[in-house]
Amino acid sequence: MKKKHFELLKKLPLFVGLEEERIREIIGTAQPCEFPRGKIIFQQGDPADWFYVILQGWVKVFRVSEEGNEAVLGVFSRGDTVADAAMFIGKRYPASAQIVAEAILLRIDGVRLRQSIHDDPEIAFSLLASMSHHMKNLTDQVAQMKLYHGPERVALFLLRLCPLPEGPAVISLPYEKSLVAARLGMQPESLSRALSKLRDIGVTVNQGHVVVNDVAKLAKYANADPVHTIKNGKGERA
Question: Can you say whether the dihedral through the CA atoms of 152, 56, 47, 128 is positive or negative?
Fold first, then answer.
């Protein structure tokens, strides 16, 4: 495993505070694997034998109703874990996961994780921290959909993709617009209207790129602190 990947693991809520030797025991012989766009990682109802760490790229987690309607539960990126909680909740995946932009993932054996917790209860607290992190992100996402109008939601989404808290920025949308709309709880046509309204504050769209003339102005429109938002978004997470 590359050093940069292991350094990322050490910063995850699941592993932060653990000795390097303990982390290596948990991940075992797992090695980063590349996945193409469109690849299904697991299906809702499959045995939850593995969980994943995203080292690069984007992963969509979703559920499909009996009528065939898809609900996007989240879109995750570098530094996120996927399905770690499923190791202990019914032992089956409660949703499906699909690669939406070429990704590198680390697949970790759930049996090894459970055994590690049995051997060292301290890891259970790390797992609780990871679950709390997911819960906070989900709570923030629901709050944004309830409290923010469409253009404000889009502005906050774009702000989290900006590399710096001020000045101009050119952003590459990480995945297709229809998924951006689903992630923000909007219809595609509502997303288009919201982007049009953002032209008044210097935001323009050219195919898959978004030009922001003034990041600070975008942050003001979204009622957000640009430094805090971009730091948490890491300039790449939405």
Answer: negative
